[in-house]
Amino acid sequence: MGTPCLGALELFLRSFSVMATTQSLNSDDARLAELGYKQEFKRHFTLWETFGLSFSEVSVVPGIASVFFISLSNGGPVSMIWGWLISGFFITLVCIAVSGTRICRSYRRWIVLLDSSVCLSTMPKSPLVDYSNTIYLMAGVASLAWSIALQIAACISIESNFTWAPTTAQLFGISAAVLVAQALVACFATRIMARLQSFVIAVNFALILVVIIALPAATPKEFKNNATYALGKFDNINGWSNGFAFVLSFLTPLWVIGGFDVTAHISEEASNANFAVPWANIMATSLAITTGLAVNVAVAFCMGNDLLSILSDPTGQPFATASCSRAFIFLTISYMRNLYSFIALALFLSEANLTLAASRQTFAFARDGALPLSFWIYRMNKFSATPINAVWVVTSVAFIFTFLVFAGPTAITTVFSLTIVAQYLSYIIPIFCRFAFKNDFTPGPFHTGRLSAPISILSLVWMVFMMVIFMFPAIPKVSPVSMNYTSACLGGWVLFVSCRGPIPNIETERDFTSGAALMDESGDSSTLEKKA
Q1: Is domain 47-527 annotated with CATH 1.20.1740.10?
Q2: Is the pTM of this model over 0.90?
Q3: Which residue would you say has higher pLDDT here, 168 or 512?
């Protein structure tokens, strides 16, 4: 797998997975049947591959490269390192809280989240959690496609010796091509997608090693920043007060590390999902925070101290200048191009995995008749045994989101913010319900015992606080153009949608609450028709 430590990690996780799977050969299907659902997917994801899916959604170096400007302009080195550490601590608590609740113990993927808010409380069934989860996944696919387009454009700009700059239309065209390409990959059979995860892990680890080893080695000692600057220099050039600017720097790790429910969405395709899903999340998040800190430290020592020059990088990607400027006489244009090519590749693999998870969530949502055209979305392709219709629904909605680039930077930034705000909203409600309402919650293989309550409380406070921060505009002088419209966008979506559920599919005949469809006696979802 490229390095001894990575090979050892793979061996450990595969051995761990074999032992766990041997203990419960049919428990996954039995648990699914208890919830009123039949098994419709092949279980090809091992613990190692489930970890790969979770780790790819983080994509440490590509993620940091995409949003590097946030921490750099809101405190410089201090925000890059200490902001990452503080935010990383609370992100870990959120991951533990999500993994420890029934969110990752239920196999109902649309999941999971409705099962949590309903089964963990006596409150009325609400669509808010589920539609928040849906909108964040689809918006996430769109935002990743846009990030990939920016990285590809950076590669082209570097190759042209910075004489070429992309137009909005060209970036949109690249994004559209990326969406189509990743949808084709997400249509692959489960076995292929599972085996792909080893390659995904290798690419991400290779990028991490390049930044934390090759970059410091290539930067001459006299050109490196000293520890006083790298660890203690606070440079605020964004206009907000220093305190609030430091808080804004927390957004960088929040952009990079998230999607704790992504592995839960493929729980019907994971072996011993009750065990693998939470542990894959915990391990991937912990590793991402640790390696992300190492990446930030390496860049802080090697990026130079002219932050304005870095932020005005001709490629539009400050990370390119920060990671190569001081070592430029030793690192050629070819190196920079290859680095950004691999960043784009890692983001593309992450995009394909996110589309995979989003399509499974959409499929399961349609299974309960919660979406328009549920009878059509809830179909399995006979050749690949995957929900191809759901894949293209997710891609189509993401394509519509991407059109917002023509409305200006504020509009597309709203889509990006929506991915985090809607994601956190879908986590807050189930975690809150577990402790605020009477329920029959029983701990799963992963639980924190008496620490569950304090961890959950801290997680809730953090998520609510950061949701508010995400609603703020990027600059203090607000105008209609620079305003952050995330709250309006999310609120409009919540008011628009409505749904009832869950609806078991074990029976030979059932009604969709919103899809109004029937299943034939064979249980073949491809025969769903609209009810007269």
Answers
A1: yes
A2: no
A3: 168
